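BUG: 3D viewer hangs when loading the predicted structure for this chain

Environment: internal workstation, default settings.
Expected: structure renders.
Actual: progress bar stalls at 90%.

Input used:
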Amino acid sequence: MSTHVNNPTELAQSHLPQVTEPRNPGMPLDMDWVRAVQVNTSAVERRAAGLPARRSVKKDHQAAWLLRAVSCIDLTTLSGDDTARRVERLCAKARQPIAPALLDALGMSRITVGAVCVYHEMIAPAKAALEGTGIPIAAVSTGFPAGLSPFELRLREIEMSVAAGAAEIDIVISRRHVLSGDWQALYDEMRAFRAACGDAHVKAILATGELGSLRNVARASLICMMAGADFIKTSTGKESVNATLPVTLVMIRAIRDYFDRTGFRVGYKPAGGISKAKDALVYLAMMKEELGDRWLQPDLFRFGASSLLGDIERQLDHHVSGSYSASHRHAIS
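Structure tokens produced before the viewer hung:
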């Protein structure tokens, strides 16, 4: 695998979402295609298990990949004790995710994260803190994380978040539609969510740890794309099992199949449990190998993470200085 990633100095211009790619308009539900989807679980697991051992990048190449990972982070706080002040601190980190001295040493002038992800109630302080930066606000919606509130309320929640300033909406699907095989209901639900988002981009959270099988993950991925999802996302981060490499492989191959058939690129967002820089490198390598360099841009790839950025900054500090700094020197908020 080639270790080349675009020059880090190009990253400052690449963080805005969907600036060049036409949105996925969706398509009519094709049940023949859905029923034909099968997954060889053992083969997927072998491929996923072998990737971390076979793919590694070192030194300057690793620093470039880690900077790319930073630009693809949806910096997230989704805690019950969130406050406006915490969100303001998170937004300050989003604006300056890497210490200026490190950026200077790496030849970078500016870099930001891909977005800031919050609950609806925290959109207002995030909007004020990010004014003029171009960093989009992503809001979780539709009864996050369970997705079991009344349907009309879920639609209204989307509309309210868009009106408040969210440029991206992370919705949760109804898992029961997948588990019962009611694919028409899942398609109709996702179409309604997409319509409620208007110009805001929609990320469909599948909660893959609760879908029962990799085949269900593949079929749910495909149906959400047919219904117009701009991104498909693994998890809310609240499930017992969140992003994994086998799930990622299944989802991004569904993205590839959808692109091959329709010509529209859909983004991918692994979320939950990705907290180490070395894990981010593995995910980036898988995206490059399976989908190509175009999917290494923030408009088509995001990490849903809260602590990942701190470890990446620590690794970059080590790259520059030759020694590891204390974790508390790289606080997120």
